[in-house]
């Protein structure tokens, strides 16, 4: 296993792991978004509550969720290690830098953007995931079966303007994070090619805009309604 340890301790190994976990988390965002959009269904929250119960009781989904938690931790820890390594490699900045012309703003501020997303993630988990797992939840009944009424918890939370604003700001941060992260992941994994790079750039831009925009629309529309 020494080869694995050496690979993960190297800068290239950490970048490869960051890229792989980042692409996996993007896949999770798509699935999570599909479920959360049910919050906007005009059925009093039934479809969302049924979805939430399925996601928390299905054996395969529960097993996959542990992989997801591990992926989040690995992505965050490796991002910190890469940032520390980059700073230690260049403790004193250049007097004159052409970074602004050679790279995008998002690529130069991935650490800052990641921190915004991380803070949002902690608040998001505390407000919903923790309450769903360990807190007292209102119950509702559909077709003789009881469900935790997570819809009411979410709609009550999104009645708070400060929380809606926080979600929108976090999704803006996520958008910029994805703009650079998606394309960078393909380059790091060696999957880029002059023939396919334009398509990767277009798909990455669509993902970076559409996913955060739809996530942000949920608290906005629930607050307005």
Automatic annotation (TrEMBL):
The chain crosses the membrane at residues 16-35, 66-85, 110-130, 150-179, 200-224. One of its GO terms (cellular component) is membrane. Keywords: Membrane, Transmembrane, Transmembrane helix. InterPro entries: Cytochrome_b-558, SQR/QFR_C/D. It comes from the Bacteria. Coiled coil: none annotated. This is Succinate dehydrogenase cytochrome b subunit. It comes from Fulvivirga sedimenti.
């Amino acid at each position: 296993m020494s080869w694995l340890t050496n690979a993960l301790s190297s800068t290239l190994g950490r970048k490869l792991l960051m890229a792989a976990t980042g692409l996996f988390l993007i896949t999770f965002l798509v699935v999570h978004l599909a479920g959360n959009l049910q919050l906007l269904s005009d059925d009093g929250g039934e479809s969302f509550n049924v979805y939430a119960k399925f996601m928390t009781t299905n054996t395969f989904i529960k097993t996959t969720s542990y992989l997801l938690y591990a992926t989040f931790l690995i992505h965050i820890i490796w991002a910190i290690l890469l940032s520390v390594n980059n700073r230690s490699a260049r403790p004193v900045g250049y007097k004159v830098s052409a970074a602004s012309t050679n790279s995008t703003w998002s690529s130069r501020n991935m650490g800052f953007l990641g921190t915004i997303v991380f803070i949002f993630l902690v608040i998001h988990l505390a407000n919903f995931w923790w309450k769903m797992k360990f807190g007292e939840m209102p119950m509702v009944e559909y077709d003789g079966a009881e469900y935790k009424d997570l819809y009411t918890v979410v709609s009550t939370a999104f009645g708070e303007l400060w929380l809606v604003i926080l979600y929108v700001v976090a999704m803006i941060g996520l958008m910029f994070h994805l703009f650079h992260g998606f394309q960078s992941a393909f380059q790091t994994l060696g999957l880029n090619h002059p023939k396919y790079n334009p398509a990767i750039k277009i798909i990455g831009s669509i993902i970076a805009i559409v996913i955060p925009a739809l996530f942000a629309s949920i608290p906005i529309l629930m607050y307005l309604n």
